[in-house]
Specification:
The protein has helices at 33-42, 81-94, 98-108, 130-152, 163-168, 190-217, 221-226, 233-243, 278-291, 336-348, 380-391, 395-404; strands at 46-47, 55-59, 70-73, 111-118, 174-176, 183-189, 249-254, 271-273, 295-307, 315-323, 329-334, 352-359, 366-375. The chain is α+β, with helices and mostly antiparallel strands. Residues 1-11 have a biased composition (Basic and acidic residues).
């Protein structure tokens, strides 16, 4: 592994798909006039006249609106629609208004918008402490991750399961400009993230209804039913992180104008949570953590660590999971014979197969009642790849030290 010298400038981060729009707006023939009008309205632009049924005149929000206007056709039936669209797109690309860039992003990457608001005290001139900004971003990401997990399975508690693919699904999510510390907007591309947005939207409403029911009756049963809508320990913990330290928080979804999901209102009403909801959310999270059962599995993985207190008897083994469960690593305790099989498989570069139950305590990172440990035959090329991967880790050193001092 190589390291970048401390005095070397940091590499530029990957630009998102809308980055070049300042100099190259979308082509007019690729823009639906109705979608452009909807995005302008969403981002605060005002329609101030125009020829009814033909085009509208739009001005940006704030003081900048006094000297700028766009003429946007209502549909392509208007004879000069392409010319008007082209002029409007060029004007947006040259506009100093932050909302103009948000509109162009929405055209270039059709996205659902998820908005978070936190009611927190502000400092001089509307500033916010660093911790407030960090808390909002952290809580928002945890909510997105909870939504991504719920697209993979329905569970009250996920732990380490599905976490890697769920986190990878957030890579295309963009962040919109917003006032520091109080509001945040995520742009979730429809092509790759629509399932996430829909599931999170449903889960938030279900969590709100279950919380209301618990506060009114003291009964937690509604949270059990809410699991089917995507509510989980991870979601309740994210909501707690969002609300804690604030006077309240809201989350709202605005669907991409060109692709509103069937049966979903537009705009959707924000879902609100207050500090008074925290006891119910905490109790629900603890309930999910206790109730999620262990899972029977048959895992295939490579041995990356072996440890036992002496040359004989049972020992601990860590596997890097290849197949059988959506977790990256598991630990287990094996009897003497199974431990010996795992050790030999490690030495010759073979994965092993093992039966057991993934225990929910500890985040589904431990396999209990492990049995039927057996090496899995692979071709020479795959064995060489596995051996090379293992030799690049520090764990193999610890293994050989134990092997040399053991049997």
């Amino acid at each position: 592994m190589t390291h970048r010298p401390l005095d070397e400038p940091a590499r530029a981060v990957r630009s998102h798909p809308a980055e070049p729009l300042g100099s190259r707006p979308p082509a007019p023939d690729q823009v639906d006039p109705a979608v452009l009008s909807a995005l302008l309205q969403r981002h605060g632009w005002q329609r101030r006249g125009g020829a009814a049924g033909r085009y509208g005149r739009w001005t940006p929000p704030g003081p900048a609106g006094s000297g700028t206007s766009l003429l946007v056709p209502e549909n392509r039936a208007y004879p000069d629609s392409d010319d008007l669209l082209g002029e409007a797109l060029v004007a947006l690309s040259r506009s100093a208004s932050p909302s103009a860039r948000d509109v162009l992003v929405g055209l270039a990457v059709p996205s659902d918008e998820i908005h978070w608001w936190r009611d927190v005290p502000t400092g001089p001139l509307g500033t916010s402490p660093w911790a407030v900004e960090d808390q909002l971003r952290t809580a928002a990401r945890r909510l997105l991750l909870a939504g991504a997990l719920a697209t993979r399975a329905r569970a009250g508690y996920f732990g380490a399961r599905y976490r890697s693919p769920a986190a990878a699904s957030l890579e295309n999510v963009l962040v919109g400009a917003a006032p520091v510390g109080r509001r945040l907007t995520a742009l979730v591309p429809v092509a790759t993230g629509r399932a996430l947005t829909v599931r999170l939207h449903q889960a938030l409403y279900a969590a709100r209804e279950a919380t209301d029911y618990q506060r009114a009756t003291g009964d937690m049963d509604a949270f059990d039913a809410a699991v089917e809508a995507g509510v989980s320990h991870e979601l309740t913990e994210a909501l707690i992180a969002l609300v804690r330290g604030s006077e309240g928080a809201r989350i709202a979804v605005e669907w991409a104008p060109a692709a509103v999901p069937e049966g979903c209102a537009t705009p959707a009403e924000p879902v609100e949570f207050s500090p008074g909801d925290l006891p119910a959310l905490r109790e629900a999270g603890a309930r999910y953590l206790r109730a999620e059962p262990s899972v029977p599995v048959r895992l295939t993985g490579t041995v990356v660590r072996l440890r036992r207190p002496g040359p004989r008897g049972e020992g601990g083994v860590q596997l890097r999971v290849i197949a059988g469960a959506e977790v990256p690593h598991v630990r287990m305790t094996l009897d003497e014979e199974s431990y010996r099989i795992a050790g030999h498989a490690h030495l010759v570069g073979l994965p092993v197969r093992v039966h057991g139950r993934l225990e929910s305590q500890g985040g589904f990172r431990r396999l209990v009642n492990a049995s039927e440990v057996a090496p899995v035959q692979v071709d020479d090329a795959e064995r060489d790849r596995l051996m090379k991967s293992l030799q690049e880790t520090a764990e193999i050193t610890a293994f050989f030290e134990e092997a040399c001092g053991g049997d």
